[in-house]
Amino acid sequence: MWYNFTGCDSCTRVRDYCVSTDLPKATVTIEAPDEPFYPGDTVTLKCDITGYRDWEYYWYRNNTRIPNKTSQTITLLNDSGQYKCSGERAKSPKLSNFSDSVPVYFQGKSAAEFLIMAFQEIIFQLLKLISESTGSAELLGK
């Protein structure tokens, strides 16, 4: 598939897309705590396209468009991946070039996973105490 942008004198073909040097380029900035990011941290991405207004923004994670995300900012809580954005508007220029990809990686366990592990440990310790006090090892599966 080859896209020919109207009024585009200089295009470069990149992976079946025409990247125009005449179109504004989107830029992604990250608003977040210091890395590393952990599940539950709030990471906000902002798409900027300078020189023009009235953009509808499109967000992509690992080169796949994220449905229902057309605002200038998106908030991530645990979705690792390579993020980029682009824009579209009613007036010329109608499209922007894609931003460069920005890596966002969450590591470790989420708060919910820590709570589940803590709960499991408490249950195990309670069963162990009951088993020891009653002399019945059956509660622990022994």
From TrEMBL:
GO terms for cellular component: external side of plasma membrane. Keywords: Disulfide bond, Signal. It holds the Pfam family Ig_2. Residues 24-96 form the Ig-like domain. GO terms for molecular function: transmembrane signaling receptor activity. It comes from Denticeps clupeoides. The keyword Disulfide bond applies. It comes from the Eukaryota. Transmembrane segments: none annotated. This is Ig-like domain-containing protein. GO terms for biological process: cell surface receptor signaling pathway; immune response. PANTHER family: FC RECEPTOR-LIKE PROTEIN 4, IMMUNOGLOBULIN FC RECEPTOR.
